[in-house]
Design brief:
The protein has 275 residues and is α/β, with parallel strands linked by helices. The chain has one domain: Nucleotidyltransferase, domain 5. It is built from eleven helices and five strands, in the order αβααββαβαβαααααα. It has a five-stranded mixed sheet with strand order 3-2-1-4-5, with helices on both faces. Helix 5 links the parallel strand 4 and strand 5. The termini are far apart.
Length: 275
């Protein structure tokens, strides 16, 4: 299949991002008169956030994407590929450019995320703003409200699985993606979580961050499949077939992408209840 033909068959971009702090911006905005180094400013701000909120997660305004993983999925919900952007350099400005250019080049497939409405997409939107990238098909603010790509209820443009499953925040899904993946026998968090990413980046472990991001995207894909069952788009038998195909694909790719071996080592086969 040629590149142009393969692009036509991609209907969904299932994606996840990991971020690092922009310590220089934190210093300039949070502590403008104190002449703090980026590292000093970040340490102080994280301590402040921990004291105020119990978590040291930075707002989206102070972070940069250091990893974006994308699972390409066709109209029949078949997994075609998983890519991490700008490997092996993982430069935030190139990652951002490749994400938006890729979305457009593939015919603007439906973006699928978990909590991307409040985190992943705002990070990538602000990064496009920061780096001066043009994304008119996404910021189509002159279209009718329900046709705008950024409209919260336009699931043809962006399907946030957290919005879907929580009825747009009617209740809290305590446990998040990790819980939902484990409910259907998939690995979920298996050694790394988002709170460790900044430290891993500072230790030079950027490739490992991207490996972790690949695994989150795989979990998101399998949760996406189960939501298709929930919505009547797939039967459970269809889901089983697609999961088996994806597992075989991971086994095939695991020699060149070792993190898939780790993912498969935590694999569980979900079975329906028996009456």
């Amino acid at each position: 299949m040629s590149t142009s033909e393969s692009k036509q068959h991609v209907s969904y971009f299932i994606f996840d991002i990991e971020t690092i702090a922009d310590g220089d911006l934190v210093s300039k905005i949070r502590y403008p008169k104190e002449n703090l180094s980026p590292a000093e400013a970040l340490t102080r701000y994280r301590a402040q956030l921990m004291e105020e909120t119990g978590r040291d997660v930075l707002p989206v305004t102070f972070v940069l994407p250091i990893s974006v993983a994308v699972a390409k999925v066709d109209a029949d919900y078949r997994l075609l590929d998983v890519a991490v952007l700008d490997a092996p350099n993982f430069r935030p400005h190139v990652i951002t450019r490749h994400f938006w250019q890729g979305w457009n080049a593939y015919g603007r497939p439906t973006l699928v995320s978990f909590n991307g409405r409040t985190y992943d997409i705002p990070v990538l939107e602000l990064a496009a703003y920061r780096y001066g990238y043009t994304v008119p098909a996404w910021f189509n603010v002159e279209a009718r409200t329900y046709e705008q790509s950024r409209n919260r209820y336009n699931s043809q443009s962006h399907l946030d699985l957290l919005d879907l499953l929580s009825n747009f925040g009617a209740f809290r899904i305590s446990g998040g993606l990790n819980l939902l993946a484990n409910m259907i026998g998939k690995p979920g968090k298996s050694g790394v979580d988002g709170s460790q990413v900044q430290g891993m980046y500072e230790a030079g472990e950027v490739a490992a961050i991207n490996d972790y991001c690949r695994c989150d995207v795989l979990d998101t894909y399998f949760v996406f499949l189960r939501t298709r069952v929930l919505l009547g788009k797939l039967t459970v038998e269809d889901e089983h077939r697609l999961v088996a195909e994806a597992k075989a694909w991971l086994e095939e790719k695991s020699e060149s992408i070792p993190v898939y071996k780790h993912y498969l080592s935590h694999w569980g086969d979900w079975q329906p209840p028996v009456d």
